[in-house]
Batch of 2 targets.
Target 1
Amino acid sequence: LLLLAINHLPKHSTNLSKEVMPFPDFPYPAHLPTFLKHRDVRQYLEDYSTAFGIHEHVSFGSTVTDIRPLPAAAARDVRMRVNGDHCHMATGGVMNVGPGADTQSQSLVSRGSDARNVTQEFQIDNMARGLSELSSGRERDCPQHHQHSPIAEINTVSFNGSAGTDQSSDSSVWNGSDFSNTPRPLADIGPWWQVSYRTTTAPTSSSSTSSATVEETRIFDAVIVCNGHFSEAITPEVEGMEFFQGTVLHSHNYRRPEVFHDKSVLVVGAGASGQDICQDVAKVARRVFVSTSPEKRITSPLPENIQRCDRMARVDEQGRVVFSDGQVVTVDAVLWCTGYVYSHPFLHDSCGVAVDNGRYVRPLYKHIVNAENPTMFFIGLPKLIVPNLLFHCQVLFVKAVLDRRHRLPSPDVMRQWNVEDLAERQHQGLSRERGHEMLARQWAYNADLAACAGVDSPYPAHVRARYEHILEGRANRLATYREEIFENSAMYQRLIANWRC
């Protein structure tokens, strides 16, 4: 399940149009404005979840605390047992993992399902199709064939075995043996996964004020990490910041400009948030300074009370801001519009995934597959993209891997792909920290994923045209681009004509 973190900005509109934003098979309602409000996006996600039956697969109030690959020695201690009409996982001591990082991760795990109505074979469905079709495999009665089928994000586990038998195995989990001596669905791709999570339930009655917390550990064939990267803010370390006595706020917590009335405000960063917030604050502030490196300066005309500045270098002992060109200003507030880090505190070191300086996740094949343990996948890491479209293509790719329509290369080849992809970006002047940025690369990337999945490209020509028109508008007409009629633009007509040729 993909969870989007959207700041509650009641007066603000999205910076992409509704024609660009939806999942390919679930458009926004036609009556909505071109650029949407927070409430519109929230309602869309709720409608999407209802249409595809996602809610029934989600355990709300759950926090994933630890994920790690299950080693062969631990696999031998796992037993599948039958308890009445239900199947459950019984684990040996090595499986009883205590809580890890105390994180409010958006990764969710379901509580499992009734064993009388589960699929025999591993099933996973893509995000655009939702999760309502997971029961398309053959059903078996629990006493003969049973399996436990919880879902972690869009993750499914299946185990086959016979009631009352000892299903331990002396074989490694990588060699195709599972607990019942029947080939495990993904044994030739990667390991099983041990997932520990904490579920907190609300009080059971109006007179009760205490909640209950249950900690559980379960085993999965595959893990798909979809916890996003718009929640853990980057706060730059600036020399002398302890001398600053004014307001300090990250864009993640920005809501309304009124608190900056008649104040002098420094906005650090000029990405999508910085562009919108500096204009919003300028409506009420006395003066707004926008600090960026020279190559990232806003090129569009801006209101007269907004001044472009060089990179923030330090704060002097008088609490004044000093820029890299030597300019000194006094401000009442600093607004960090500096983005977010990738954070996966629930991943154990044995997962084999590293995050360099919070900005670059490796080693990943196609920005998705954990090359060290290829039954772990990541959805949504790329930046500067059309989000839901790219997520859709990524999930199509993962689905093709899991149902064996696409075979992954060897781990060595996947690691090399990661090295070469980063080297190509660095050759073009991008730092390692920008290793997941896409922009123009996203179209070939999406097409490649769709080809690997054996499906046609999922986006019509107008999506790219609209996206590039919006980028051009933000670069040159930041204050008015949302008011333009896209179909009347020369860019739209030119791009459509070129694609038709």
Target 2
Amino acid sequence: MLMDMPENTQIFTAGFQAMFHTHTCEEEATVVKLFETTNKKGIVNKKPAFATVGMHMIVMLELERMTPVGTFDKEPYLGRFTLRTEGKTVAIGIITKLPPKKDD
């Protein structure tokens, strides 16, 4: 859920950057894509260009480095996160899907 936005940015869109916080990790993150938004009235947009404060979203995030996380349904303690920027908590959320594992 999008909680708050910095003064100089009022919309949340692909390319937005923030710090990803989960359990004891902190990592730089970029929003790659917005898949879906739901506004306060429950109206769902399947092809959103942006989100505003109060909306629920399904997004893809890209982290700078590998970070130990899990999906909320399998490992709730590893599946919660917050996005913060400029001293504000911008969004809170849960991890519903992870990319496939890469063979090293």
